[in-house]
Amino acid sequence: MTAFVLSDSRAMLGRNLRRMRHAPGLFVITMTMPVTMLLFFGYVFGSAMVVADGGYRAYLVPGLLVATAVNGVMTAMLASAQDCQRGVMDRFRTLPMSRFAIPAGQTASDVLLAALGLVPLVLCGLAVGWRIEGGPAGAAGAFALLLLFRLATAWTGHYIGLLVGTEEAAGQLGAATFMLPLLSNAYVPTDGMPGWLRTVAEWNPISAVVTACRDLFGNGGPAADVSWPVAHPVLASVGWCVLLLAVFVPLTVRRYGRDSA
Amino acid sequence: MSTRCVASIWPCRRARCAACSGRTAREKSPSAGRLLTTLLTPDAGSARVAGHDVVRAPGEVRRAIGVTGQATSVDTDLTGRENLRLFARLHRLRGDTAHARAEVLLDRFGLGAAADRPARTYSGGMRRRLDLAASLLTRPRVLFLDEPTTGLDPASRNAIWEVVRELTLSGTTVLLTTQYLEEADQLADDVALIDQGRVTVRGTPDALKAEIGSYAEVVVAEEAALPGAAVVLDRLTGNRPALDAGRRTAGAATTDASLTLPRLVRELDAAGVPIVDAALRRPTLDEVFLRLTAPADATTGTDTDTDTEGIAA
């Protein structure tokens, strides 16, 4: 079983790498978008932004790393909706493999590509003044957390893609996922938000993951007087990831067993 | 989605080609195919494919089948070769075997020259061939073909037909769904016509044609001679002939095996009907279908295929 998941994942990774070669547009966007946003947010908004120690660009980098992981929702959703629409999904579903293998392969390959996608953002972040100050163990923990979160968002997106079934619908929903990090502490601190909004933003899983990353990278711990998930960021982040996976893995596998036509 | 279930599916012998076809069967008969290929789980009842129960042993069924759906189900962003290699890998063929099998199929389906182009640049016929090739990677015991030639040019259609004939000769059972009864006639040993979710007619193409008999048709020299021709046809066939004044044609179906073409001509001649053409031809499956599924008081006009619509499974 594990061997099959590994070999299916490798086959799906190969598929995604080859697709990228034939249609490099999405890959280029995936790689350059976070960097563009870093420069854009960092220098345009950053010029008017006053945050605690390290400056806004150092504050922004962990937020953007997490926002990039949230893109797993959109990427996986588009991919699975496209496969549904083009009938490839039906072929997958008639293959003699477990219903778990295809989404597992697809999401695993998404995580591997996402790991690659972190590189330009990290390099660019270092160039604009962000520093890893938490030591190698903390940094490794932060990257591991980013990839775990990416895995959770990819499964979430994969399921939604199966549900909506068409590229158009997935594209529109995908644009909406861009809003999710805006409702968190990824780009701005939550302390200035109105009370109710602040609560929503702090209970947004993204906030916990961002705070955990800032903490693990040594960019500053959680502020005082915050909601529980942000006050216990690492524990809450892992909890959110486990929760998302516990919900969306079984839902996806079940959805595979059902006819979508 | 609630789906009206297919009420009956018939047993099908190994290494044969069975076809099903139907009228306005959109939400009924496709379910049969989706059910048999384990894409759909039936609410009740059971079905066996290659000896395996689709509900209890879907894995076994999937190992035994190949499926080519109506929509092309390959990854159009990959090349033909990459598609076949991917699906071979996912079929658990090992690296070398997967590659070798892909080459064999590319060659056999005439896709060798286009093997390294993305499938989105392929013509409709090429895509359909690639799709079919992807279904044959593991030499399935049962192949499901859903409208394999819809929208294809004649050359691509013939290429697909050729492959289906070879497959049945080499021991694969093919379940063909088609809206073209000519296709069923060409390929199938066993044809089922599905109407309202039930198999209404079933048999070999020859048996089905024999059931409604032959069709006698004469063309007369002038329109005024049509009534005379009708009288003769009526007497010989026992059926009221359909008349087409524009084409100066009269025709009627007959199940009388003793009616021969010479006799038809002699009788018309004896009655003084100036005929310029006469034929006693076996019906097409289209005519069989229309006749056997039409409501009792429906169309008595010329048999055409204009309202043969939809399909089955």
UniProtKB/TrEMBL annotation, chain A:
ABC transmembrane type-2 domain location: 25-259
Entry keyword annotation includes Transmembrane helix: yes
TM ranges: 25-46, 58-79, 100-130, 136-157, 169-188, 234-253
Subcellular location as annotated: Cell membrane; Membrane
GO biological process: response to antibiotic
Main location: membrane
Keyword Ubl conjugation recorded: no
MF GO annotations: ABC-type transporter activity
GO terms under cellular component: ATP-binding cassette (ABC) transporter complex
Domain of life: Bacteria
Keywords, ordered alphabetically: Antibiotic resistance, Cell membrane, Membrane, Transmembrane, Transmembrane helix, Transport
Membrane topology designation: Multi-pass membrane protein
InterPro entries: ABC2_TM, ABC2_TM_bact-type, ABC_2_transport, Nod_factor_ABC_transporter
Family from the record: Belongs to the ABC-2 integral membrane protein family.
Protein name in UniProt: Transport permease protein
Organism: Streptomyces albireticuli
